[in-house]
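Exercise 7.
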Amino acid sequence: MKALFKHLSAITQGEPGSVANHTRSSSRNISSPFVSTTLLAVLLGVPQVPIMGSGKAIAQNASCPAGTTPETIQFNASDSLQDLTQIYNIAGIRTVLSFTEEVPGQVIDRTESRIDGGVYGGLAGPNLRLNIGPGKPPETGNLSPGSATLTITFAQPVTLASPLTLLDVDQQGERDSGRFFRDIATVSAASNNANVPVTLQALGSFTQVSGNIASGVTENSFPDQGEGNVSVTPQGAVDQINIVYTPDTSQARGQDQTIGLAPFTICAPGNAGTIGDTVYQDTNGDGTQNPGEAGIPGINLTLINPGPDGQFGTGDDTTQTTTTDNNGNYSFPVPAGNYRVTVDNPPGGLTPTQTPPQTIVVGAGQNFDTADFGFSPAPTGSIGDTVYRDNNNNNVQDEGDTGIPGVQVTLT
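Solution. The predicted structure, written as tokens, is:
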């Protein structure tokens, strides 16, 4: 199956002179003499170094356990964040990025938010940037102050190829005119609903760390600086990472800053295979797709993996979903393991005639392309037979009891 790339969308607060893709610049976007901007970006495993300016270098070499390989999710600077959900399928692992707001529909600035190809936090783009209220009317309206959460969910626990890196966590300084802000970023991780501790470390002098919280302490960085960067290291495999950006609104501090995400790398099982192949109309009901028996489009399917405990039906099961194409074909990329496939919306009026094995065992790099589902029209019977003149009133049609033509019969 082709990888799902429902890419990430728009995210930033503008730096000096910048304008978001497909957005308009705002008269309040630039605060003289400089723009105060804040980016929170996650960086997993792609070697990256601030390309200019001050701040500590972020040189991170991808390192993965035996049997896994570094796989990077790349963003596209033309992506849009309008629906606040991004879905990727990388090396068989479904990865979802979702954004939530403390006040639904009232915190995230969709005009300033984007994926940007420029340098930010000392890293070359494209970087995902998320700007939160109160907004810059008239383009965005008056957004409510509050926090926004970026959640990264993996279909199964994965090891990160290198630490995450939060970028540009800082606060206002001398070069901010009329702006008073302080960034606070809280990071947590989990695996199978159990907490996975994270270790944060400030990489520059503009940020302080306390436990799993990073907060700005001094002058905000220029886009080409890394003085506000923070590394985040989960202490084990994770299937979910939460990054909560909460501007400090105490002491009359304001809001209207940016968080973000850089392309990141996970350790994916090597030699991915596939499970497929067709959902079709089994016209003759023989449990085999014969020539002329067409595939059924638009059928939703779910792939189930039993998770680390190896038992289906327990709390650590993971799932992926897909939909058959115009020819009724489907495919799930998968690492080696045990799986089940189910049809979520069986076609109405049809009866199943073929289903895959209850448990499908896939080896490394194996393509299991016989996970077919056949459906045939339900068998029909008939009700009949004769309306006749019962000459001797014995309720039996005897010889000589002739049929009566032209009688209308209703089935109820």
